[in-house]
Amino acid sequence: MGKDDFKIVNPPWVYGPSEVKEWIDASYPSKKDKKKKGKESEMFWNPHVSVDVKGDKKILSHPLLRFFLKPFGLERVEEGFDCVDVAQRFLRGFAKAGFKNVFEVKVDGEVVYSHPEKRYDVKQTIGFLEGFLGKNYVEVELRVVFDEGCEATISIRKIHARKNHAVKVFFDGRIEKERVSRFLNYVKEHLDVEVEIW
After folding, report:
1. What is the pLDDT of residues 13-34, one digit of tens each?
2. By the 8 A CB rule, do 144 and 129 touch?
3. Does 127 lie in the same domain as 77?
4. Which one, 37, 76, 131, 196, has the greatest CB density within 10 A?
């Protein structure tokens, strides 16, 4: 062990007044310091969530191609769910977690809803998406914003490579772990899913 590996804090009778304060702060941290440490450890920075919806998967790749693509997980599969229904459930989960504003909704690459100026429109957007239910859409993308500047982008794909997940959620910014777990708990309650956070 070298002399710089650890530092022994000397008792207060060896130091002057400023050193005494440092020693007291190091030995007995204040409640503010404890709260600060707790808040920092309860935050995620730019987490990514991959969600795999369990259910029927129909293989779309040609049988000859499947022979070559299957070992790498690149064969194309079609999920047995309605993308718009899954998007509505995810929006309800975001509403539970405290997200309030939907910036944009794209269905099969076409922008169908774009109102960043509205402040509290998650529930209205869920109602708006009712008109798209039952149609065979392949892809839905959502951009949802939290008050404190955290933005979430959700990509729901019905057709994808087997190794990829059907739903990907990208959070851009800082978000509390509690909000992410509230959102994921709602999704797990209402959909049969496997979740992976990284």
Report:
1. 666 777 777 777 777 777 776 6
2. no
3. yes
4. 76
